[in-house]
Amino acid sequence: MKKQFLLFLLAIMLSGVCLSADSGDTPIDSLMRHLDEVIAARPAYLRQKETRLQGLHSRYDSAVDDDSRFKVLGELFDEYHPFNTDSAYHISLRQEAVARRIGDPALVANARLHRANVLSSTGMYRETLEIIDSLPKEDIPPYLKPYYYHTARTVYGLLADYAAFPAEKVRYRIVTEQYRDSLLAINQPGTLGYAVTSADKHNVNGEPWKAIRELNDFISSENLTEHEMAICAWTLSESYGMTGDFASQKRYLILSAISDMKASVREYVSLRQLALLLYKEGDLDRAYQFLTIAVDDAAKSNARQRIIELNASYPMINSIYIEKVHKQHTALLKTIVIIAVLLLVLVVLMLLMRKQMARIARARREVEEANGELNRLNDELLSSNGKLAEAYNAIAEISEMKEAYIGRYMDQCVAYIEKLDSYRKSIGKLVSLGKSDDLKALVKSSTMIDQELKAFYDQFDKTFLSLFPTFVDDLNSLLMPEEAIIPRREGSLTAEQRIFALIRLGISDSDKIARFLRYSLTTIYNYRTKVRNKARGDRNLLESEILKIGRGTSG
C-alpha cells in the first residue's frame, strides 16, 4: 500500500513533464529535430562563415590589379549582404570606387545595384529608388538586367506592403507587377530564377497550385546552394500556406530555416514564420526559442526591414514568455505541494506509531498488575483452604479478564501489524518478547525513515526510467566515452544520475535537489561540477542538453 501511495505522489509530481511518444516519428518530427541540431551547431557554421570572410579579405589584400579587387569585393558583398548590412554597404562603396578607377560603366552600375539592395533591406526605400532611377539604361549590360529588375521589383513590393493608403498600395503593386514581368521576360525558362519569379507571380495571382508545380522539380535538385534552397523552400511554403496545406507549409519552412542556418545568414524570414506557426500549434518552447534567434540575428545584421517585421510579433513573444514563466511557477508549486504532502504523511505515520506504542505499554503494565494479583491470590490459597473456592473463582475471573483484555489488544496489534511493513513486524516481535530496551532503541533509530527513503528513491528511479527509458544512455552520450556512468543495477540510478534526472524534470536549484536527495549543498555542487567536467562538448551546455532528452518526439 505504501509503495503504491508513493508511486501515486511521484506520478503527480511528474504530471507536468512532457512525455516522449515512442509510437514513431513523422517526417515533420525528424525535420524539426534536424533543425534543432543545426541551430545547436550554429557556432560551427559561423566559424566557417568567418573563415570564408577572412580568406576573401586576404585575397583582396593580395590582389595585384583593380579587376581582381572588383571580383573579390563582389564575392565579399555576396557573403556580407544577408549577414551584416553595414559591412555589405561599405563593401559596395569600395567596389564602386574600384569600378570608377577601372572606368567601366557596367561595373559601376553593378556596384550601385549592390548598394541599392543594401539600402532596400534597411528600409531606405527613397534612396534605393534614387539609385535605380539614376542608372543609365545604356550602362546596364544584359547580364545585369535580371539584377536590376529584381532590385526594382523588391523595393516596390516593400513599398506596396507598407503603404499607408490604399491608392498608394495599388500603384506600387502595379509597378511591382511590371518589374516582375520584365524579370520573367529576360530570365531563361527552366532556371531557378525564372521558376521562383514565376511562382511568386502565381501566388500573387491566387494560383498557388501552379507555383507548387513550378518549383517541385527544383526543390528535389541536389545542385542547389543552401541560399537557393532557402529561397525555393520559402516560396513553396507560401504556396502551400495559401492552399491550406499547413503540414506542407511547415515542412518547407523548416527546410528553408535549415538552409538559412547552414548558410550562416542573419537576414531571413523563414524562422520567424515557423515560430509563428509553432505558436499557433502550442509549441511554446520552440516558438520562443526561434523568435529569440530571429530577433538576435536581425539586430546583428542591422536588417531594419526584418527588425520592423519582428517588432510586430513582440506582443506574441511577450505572451510566450509569460506563459513559460506561468508553467514554471505552476510546476514549482506542484513540487512544493507534493513535498508538503509527503512530510505530512510522515508526521501522521510517526504520530500513529507513538499512539500505538503507548497502547502497548499500557497493556504490558496491566498484564504485570494481573500477574501480581494472581501471586497474591496463590499466597492466600496456601494460607486458607477454606477460601479455596473463593480464591479459585477470583483467579478464574481475573484470568478471564486478562485473556479478554489481552485478546482485545492482540486483535488491535494484529490489525496494526498487517498494515505495516517489516519495520512494524519487528516492533510487534519485540513487544511480544518483552524486550523494552531493544524496542526503545529501535523507535529512536532512523531505520524506518531510511527504509522509506530507499523505497521512495527506488520507486522514483523505476518511475523515471519508465518515463525516460533511454535516459542513462542519453546522458552517457553527452559525456566522454571513458567517463560513462554505469548504474549499480538495472532499473536504478546512481546518485549523480538521480541529480541530473531531477534537472531533466525541471528541478535545477541545487538547494532543492539537496533537500530532495537529503545530501548537503556542497555534495550536490561537487556532483554537478564533476559530471560537467566529464562533458563531451562545452561543459556549460551540458545541463541545457540534458533538458532536451526525450523532446524529439514530444508532443
3D structure, described in words:
Among the domains are: 348-445; 450-546, no CATH class. With 555 residues, it is mainly alpha-helical. The chain is elongated. 27% of the residues are buried. It has helices at residues 2-13, 27-40, 42-62, 66-80, 85-102, 105-121, 125-134, 145-161, 166-186, 192-204, 208-219, 226-243, 246-262, 270-281, 284-301, 304-311, 314-383, 388-419, 422-433, 436-444, 447-467, 471-477, 495-504, 510-517, 521-532, 542-546. It is 77% helix and 0% strand. Helix 4 (66-80) runs antiparallel to helix 5 (85-102) and helix 9 (166-186) packs antiparallel against helix 10. The protein is built from 26 helices and no strands. The two termini are 33 Å apart.
The quaternary organization reads as: single chain
Query: Quick one: overall form?
Result: elongated
Sheet/helix structural class: mainly alpha
Helicity level = over 70%
Spans where pLDDT lies below 50 across 5 or more residues: 1-23, 394-420
DSSP summary, beta strand count? 0
Helical region count? 26
Biggest β-sheet strands, sense, barrel: none
Order of helices and strands: HHHHHHHHHHHHHHHHHHHHHHHHHH
What is the typical, i.e. mean, pLDDT?
A: 81
Distance between the termini: 33 Å
Radius of gyration of CA atoms, rounded to a whole number: 39 Å
- In terms of DSSP E residues, the strand content is under 5%
